[in-house]
Fold this protein.
Amino acid sequence: MFSLWRKARRENSAASRLLGTTSLRFALHGWQRAFASGADGGSITPKQEEKPALDPNAKREFKAIRVPFNEFEYSKLEEVANKTGRTKLNVIRWAILKLAEDVQEGHQ
């Protein structure tokens, strides 16, 4: 039994070195579990894990986007930023959150 475990571990390690990632090992393991469950007559659908709650004050290192503006849009952005005392980026973030709130309430 121990030798089978060592062999499987060695194969997973070799595959992850070949691809430059260790995620293959976990993907294969999940697939193997789903396959075995289906072979035994169980559900082949993997269990859905609950997503953790998102922190609205988390660091902004998740995604970055480049948004091109035309002159009219940029002048409106500057105008709102100056009137509200916010930075341009903060105006964009604030507008996204405000619109999302309005859409959830059905005010669109």
In short: The CA atoms of residues 34 and 46 lie 6 Å apart. The mean pLDDT is 78. DSSP finds four helices and no strands in the chain.
